[in-house]
Write a structure and sequence with these properties.
This protein is about 45% helix and about 15% strand. With about 725 residues, it is of the alpha/beta class. It folds into four domains: about 15-55 and about 425-450, no CATH class; about 70-235, no CATH class; about 265-405, no CATH class; about 455-705, P-loop containing nucleotide triphosphate hydrolases (Rossmann fold, 3-Layer(aba) Sandwich). The chain is elongated, with a radius of gyration of 53 Å.
Length: about 725
């Protein structure tokens, strides 16, 4: 039948348009085909999750609760719920920053000895959560060696030894004792407060920087206001040991409350200190004025004080007292306002008015007798100093009461308690995350492999691009393993009901319709090794033999042939003239099937193919056999197939489904057609199921045919 009359025969293929995109259904089927690989990734992820969950040291979280007194925040009270809408800052925001400040945490780090650490060593103990514990409350490592590795090794129930970075024993002692030993011109000092460890367990001891310890503690604290504008602050902290977490958190609470009280009573404390320093001077001044008045009375005797004189004296003393009180008010006002402020100016005007009255009063006293004037002056000094001294005593007493009764605007609602249940690690979350991450890596790998195998998948696309028919699409077979004697059988013999076997029968039918009378020689070729051309040649030959035709299968790959014969001689020896072709032909297990192996392998067999011996051989073989199938080397690698192509009647080019690209196929097909214009067709091998396709089978490999496939035992 002429080439123009060849029919396009596609085995089990539906209409498909070229499309480089992948639909959701296609993606699901791609993943389903690689389900065993994905299950392996899930198992690996689960194993990693278990190891990570065991490797992470347990953490215990304690929490405490504070309440901030917001009565003094008038703006927050006035706005109420509108405060959150207008973004009015909550008083808790400032307190949160104070809790995490160095003012508070410096004291906590020092009290809880957070700059010292003793980390247990041993991977197995860490995985099994059998690590010991060592708490250090004092450590001084020589400054030159602080960056080096120091170890403490448990030597007994309550004893331990310190080893230098040079791994030499420096000192040994008991828990609770202060140990010291000279090292590098300095002295190492250490005191262990608590030790719970097994004999021989090692700890790496470090003396950290206090500032870094404060920053680390601040970063580990979780402080936040409960709700909006509630004034309730929650604080939590996680530590490896539950009792340490509670202790550190309670120290923070106590330190913060104490400093809050001290800050609020600081003004009263400073005022009290100032008044106490001024009190002796005022007392001395009062005693001096009283002594002067007593001496004057003794010198002049009794002085007759009329009612007018006493009224004058009382009024003058009252004016002096008012002036003293106004001066105190002015000093307090100037702390808050400038001199030009109306409040300060009002006090100044009142002082000026009292001073004017006092000046007029003193001027009116000039008409009195001298002794009465002097007596009035002295009694006025005594009364004024006494009033000043009494007011100072009252202020001191009031400030002492304020200092003693100051409670601050913060109180601890809940102190931290020892938490019996660990908060970290969350092993289930870690396991799920590791499995999910591993699964995603597996999915990514599957799609990357798919992208790497971005070859031809559509028979219509291939036919349209090359104008060459696709005779068959060979799917994957489920019968991967053929045991015992069946291992020497072809797929069509061992599994005749397999859909791949059915595809070979359809390939035979298509080939019969394409071959004209007298055409018997068919060549199978492929682009690269591994496409399955030898597999196609063997099974096609077996199909013809099972239909009663005498078939000869020739392995023309004299470099690396895979079709084995029971005879050690083959095509190489025939073309070399060493033997006759009848001596190189061996019977196969399948009836009517005969095999001629490649014979001795050669590095450059193309010289044998350039002569007319191979052509003459084929002419002789046509007289003896009904069908001759020639399996050739890869087209893209050697020229053997190009030399054989003009001598055959029909060519079957085997294409690896999803691997061979359209550009490679067109290029190699053009190379063949430079030597002759012979009819040819494609066979898509290793076909896989995809949505819209007929086949749904896995890859079949070399297990179907091995050494001695066609040779008799």
């Amino acid at each position: 039948m002429a080439d123009s009359e060849q029919q396009t025969i596609v085995v089990g293929a539906q209409a498909q348009t070229p499309n480089n995109t992948i639909t959701l259904l296609e993606a699901l089927f791609i993943l389903w085909k690689r389900r065993y690989l994905l299950c392996l990734f899930l198992l690996v992820g689960a194993a990693i999750g278990v190891v990570v969950g065991q490797w992470i040291r347990p953490q215990y979280t304690s929490d405490a609760l504070f309440q901030i007194d917001i009565k003094g925040n008038k703006s927050a009270r006035a706005l109420g719920e509108m405060g959150s809408l207008l973004e009015v800052a909550s008083p808790a925001d400032a307190e949160i920053e104070l809790i995490k400040s160095r003012l508070v945490l410096n004291y906590v780090v020092d009290q809880e000895h957070l700059m010292y650490s003793a980390t247990p060593q041993g991977a197995l103990n860490r995985l099994l959560h059998r690590e010991g514990r060592m708490d250090i409350d004092f450590l001084n490592i020589p400054e030159l060696a602080r960056a080096d590795r120091w170890e403490a090794v448990v030597t007994g129930d309550n004893s331990y030894a310190i080893y230098t970075p040079e791994e030499t024993k420096l000192v040994e002692g008991m828990v609770g004792d202060l140990l010291s030993a000279p090292y590098a011109g300095d002295t190492l000092r250490i005191r262990v407060k608590l030790m719970r460890a097994t004999l021989g367990e090692k700890f790496v001891i470090k003396q950290g920087n206090p500032l870094l310890a404060v920053r680390g503690l601040a970063g580990s604290l979780k402080v936040a206001e409960k709700g909006k504008q509630t004034g309730v602050i929650g604080i939590s902290y996680s530590h490896r040991y539950a009792d340490r977490a509670a202790s550190i958190l309670n120290t923070i609470a106590n330190t913060y409350v104490r400093q809050n009280v001290e800050m609020r009573s600081a003004e009263a404390e400073k005022t009290l200190e100032f008044l106490e320093t001024q009190l002796p001077g005022i007392k001395a001044k009062l005693d001096s004025s009283e002594k002067v008045l007593s001496d004057y009375r003794h010198s002049v005797g009794s002085v007759d004080m009329t009612g007018e004189t006493r009224a004058h004296l009382d009024k003058e003393v009252d004016l002096q007292r008012q002036l003293l009180q106004l001066e105190q008010q002015r000093q307090q006002a100037t702390r808050l306002f400038k001199e030009e402020h109306p409040s300060v100016q009002t006090i100044v005007k009142q002082q000026d008015r009292l001073r004017g009255e006092l000046a007029r009063l003193k001027k009116s006293a000039e008409s009195m007798p001298v002794t009465q004037q002097e007596m009035i002056r002295l009694q006025e000094d005594v009364a004024l100093n006494n009033a000043q001294y009494t007011a100072m005593l009252n202020n001191i007493q009031q400030l002492r009461v304020v200092r003693a009764g100051e409670v601050g605007n913060v109180r601890v609602v809940d102190f931290a308690q020892i938490e019996p249940i660990q908060s970290k690690p969350k092993k289930l979350n870690i396991l799920v995350c590791c499995m999910a991450a591993s699964f995603m890596v597996g999915v990514l790998l599957v799609f990357m492999l798919r992208m790497m195998r971005n070859g031809i998948r559509s028979s219509q696309e291939l036919e349209h691009a090359t104008n060459v028919s696709v005779f068959a699409k060979i799917p994957e077979s489920k019968n991967r393993l053929v045991k015992d004697k069946r291992r020497k059988l072809t797929l069509v013999e061992s599994s005749p009901n397999d859909q791949a076997s059915e595809a070979f029968h359809t390939l035979q039918t298509a080939l019969d319709f394409s071959l004209e009378a007298g055409q018997k020689v068919v060549m199978t070729c492929g682009l690269v090794p591994g496409v399955g051309k030898s597999f196609v040649a063997k099974n096609l030959a077996a199909v013809y033999a099972m239909n009663g035709k005498r078939v000869l299968l020739i392995d023309a790959d004299m470099r690396k042939g895979v079709i084995r014969s029971s005879k050690y001689i083959g095509l190489t020896e025939v073309l070399s003239g060493k033997v006759e072709w009848r001596e190189a032909v061996a019977d196969a297990r399948c009836q009517n099937l005969f095999v001629m192996g490649c014979g001795k392998r050669l590095m450059s067999p193309s010289e044998l193919l350039r002569h007319d011996k191979f052509k003459a051989l084929l002419e002789d073989l046509k007289q003896e056999y009904d069908m001759i199938i020639v399996d050739t080397p890869p087209v893209s690698m050697v020229t053997d197939a190009e030399l054989i192509y003009p001598l055959v009647d029909f060519t079957l080019m085997v294409v690896h489904y999803g691997v061979d690209s359209l550009e490679q196929i067109k290029e190699n097909l053009a190379n063949l057609r430079r030597y002759a214009d012979k009819p040819c067709a494609f066979v898509l091998n290793h076909c896989e199921y995809e949505p819209g396709h007929y086949y749904g089978y896995g890859y079949y490999g070399k297990g179907y045919y091995g050494k001695g496939y066609f040779s008799k035992s």
